Amino acid sequence: MDNLTHSLFGVTLARTPLGRAGRGATTALVLASNAPDIDVTATLGGAAKYLEWHRGVTHGPLGLVGLAFITAGIVALGRRLNPKWRHEDDAPFGMLVAVSMIGILFHVLMDLPTSYGVRLLSPFSWRWYAVDWMPIVDVYLLIVLASGLLFGRVTADAKRRNAVIVLTFVAIIYGVRGAAHRQAVDLAPILFGQTLPPRCDPPSESWIDSWPKPAPSMRPDGRRCLVEIAALPSFTSPFDWRIVAQTSNAFELHDINVLDRRFQVSASEANDGHFWRQAIRYPNVWTEPVRQAAATPLGRVFLGFSRFPAARTANDPTGAATVRFTDVRFVSPGPIDQRGPRSQLFTATIRFDAIGRVISQSLGR
User: Are 104 and 32 in contact (CB under 8 A)?
Assistant: First the structure.
């Protein structure tokens, strides 16, 4: 989630019984609620370093413990440097560590339900995990959390009661998005109709997706097959979703509103609407140059980060090849016919000369 949401959630936590830990607990909770995003400093090493380290160690087990001690240390150091901040009811250092750990844990738990995902077990495992319920910025969550700061500020009891109300509404937002996500996935076969190929493997029953995954391949009979279907949340409504169907040779994207009345009919009648004609397609063909590009330093970093990397190859008359990976999660939002990456950060371009030597590798077109 965005840092404003994390900060507001930290303040809300401070209005629960956690705030009784003593003076400094609120500061520790707000700092801890943002601490894992310190990995943004990796951008000092370049955009590729950002992709390599983002939501990694600082969001894993070592980050949970290490950042909790660092956050508690910052609060304790502030007291030492400024005597005016010292009080008899100051939270002891151990309690600051405990509440900081809770703040960091909730940060990670709020990042997990986003389609961006989080590397929960890094540095022991660099796999990404995501639940796909929430966008990076959820306006409804922001409204609820911000509203909680405007009411019940008079007494401690009023603040605690208000915090319970806010957290209840937060749970409802997550519940609504979770239910809508399930419905969007269930409606996906209707969207793609007859164009949806059979599954490559039996569908996974896990509600958490993880990656990176092996490069897709055709069925033994040479026919294309369906790797997976995902529903990615929108920034505007909990009922608007972008469906991503990954086949063995392409990604097909379609926008859907789960409240669309056209879906409140039988599957056969819905298919008559030819929804599949509105889908857009991103080829994903793994040629030999693509495999070479995947083995380059930038290729390894990008494919380690990217959830849905669409690979394309272009050859010029001299025999040189250009391979471009695009993470289709980050294609432009808005109307489905507006193609192209939302940010060049999520496109990797690697060029080879005629004998297969790397000429250049960069993020962007």
Answer: yes
